[in-house]
Amino acid sequence: MDHAPNAVATPIRSICCIGAGYVGGPTMAVIADRCPHVQVTVVDLNAARIAAWNDPDLSRLPVYEPGLDAVVGRARGRNLSFSTAVDAAIAEADMVFISVNTPTKTRGLGAGQASDLRWVEACARQVARCAQGHTIVVEKSTLPVRTAEAIRAILAAAERESEGPTPSFSVLSNPEFLAEGTAISDLEQPDRVLIGGEDPAAVEALAGLYGAWVPPDRILRTNVWSSELSKLTANAFLAQRISSINAIAAFCESSGADVQEVARAIGTDSRIGPKFLKAGPGFGGSCFQKDILNLVYLCRHEGLDEVAHYWEAVVTLNTWQQHRIARLVVNRLFGTVTGKRLAILGFAFKADTNDTRESPAIRIAGDLLEEGAQLAIHDFKVPAERMAADLGLEPTPPDAGGGPGAAALSGEGAWWPAASPEEAVAGADAALILTEWQAYSALDWAALASRMRQPAWVFDARGVADAAAVQAAGLRLWRVGQGESAP
Ligand code: UDX
Ligand code: ADP
Fold first, then answer.
1. pLDDT tens, 328-353?
2. Ligand 1 pocket, residues with Cβ under 6 angstroms
3. Among 3.40.50.720, 3.40.50.620, 3.40.190.10, 3.40.50.12710, what is the CATH number of 223-487?
């Protein structure tokens, strides 16, 4: 059903992106910024999200990304718009990006591993219904291998069933490699742009768009399946590196080595390289776990049990690392945290984002709540409502006098949002650093220690605290991959 080059509407004049999330919003903002001659409309069913993208106050965009406000500020109202009118935007577009969520299935066949393609399928049907003329459909979300085939089948049916002028479609895979927190620079200076497709004219139309700012040798063309699988493989390799260094971190702690020294030493081997070797509380984010579980599911489906098992171990180690940290906190605090106040510094899955999807903080805080701890949680960007939804527990503050709330007395776990690290540590027996926010490496530990209940601990799961300052303040310190040091 793909078309000969002369059947394709090139160059692209009008783009519709379905899904105004972490991927769709920033990606389209950069395309609009770099291609002022192309009309870009980002649509979403979620009216509140669209309203936030249209907020005149650029500090209130629904996605926090350094530099995003400037890009949106330049393009919005010129050739970038955000709307809930999905059908109309599809009808006007030469090219439709599908950038909707593909979470792991929670029920039915493949539950817990396979990706839920419900939203992608709904989009494909909507495109089939509304598209006019020739439309290039680009799968942009992280999608399991062979999704393009499903999209293609739905669109092909539309070609057959059409009563009016026959619509026609080309399907491309164009996986997103942006990382949150650096999305704008990843988009503006990508290591590579990957375009998978069987219709050369459609591939060139998309390559032409990126060509406005990406050097030609960084635009890679592959077949659709290779493109889809490359996305899963890249994330699987990256996640594997983190589980590998976290595994070594645990061994360092028990054997007296220092994981930061080991990472530096191995990172100088040009075959290994220095990036992605930071030990921590385990990886989070919307992609790594989902993509690996998806790979595991697909390998099992192909009868490759050993391969599935190999990749599954990356996730198992990651989950273990999170439970391990919660467990060691309990152990160091004399075997119990029931009724004790602990400060959680950082709830986002990494610094410079407000995203908490699969954040290690959720599992670690969850384990501590289960043990009856009283958590004061601080983050620079995550709102309290998000924390409550992730923890499945509404906040209950300490009593008005700052004493233990009713939950503490009953032995139940409880939490409340703290407006600053200073507020979080008040009366706490320990502070846990779970996100590597820059500001956490410059905390005034002498001042913080004076607010804590002694003997107090700092558990630095990111290895970012100023160790000398922590110890000089008379605090006990545990650091991931380095273990414990007394003041
Ligand atoms: C990732 C991929 O990097 C990106 O290419 C893909 O498109 C989407 O998934 P993202 O999830 O935004 O991006 O963040 P990333 O920077 O990769 O970090 C993922 C997790 O790994 C975070 O929780 C981070 O804290 C953790 N991490 C990363 C480490 O623990 N150590 C490291 O050295 C690097
Ligand atoms: P990602 O990280 O992949 O961008 P998000 O969950 O942040 O994922 O964003 C996906 C967006 O897609 C959500 O805002 C959701 O409302 C939107 N969405 C899902 N299905 C549809 C659909 N059929 N039409 C329009 N928007 C959709």
1. 999 999 999 999 999 999 999 999 88
2. 176-180, 235, 238, 242, 276-278, 280, 283-285, 287-288, 349-350
3. 3.40.50.720
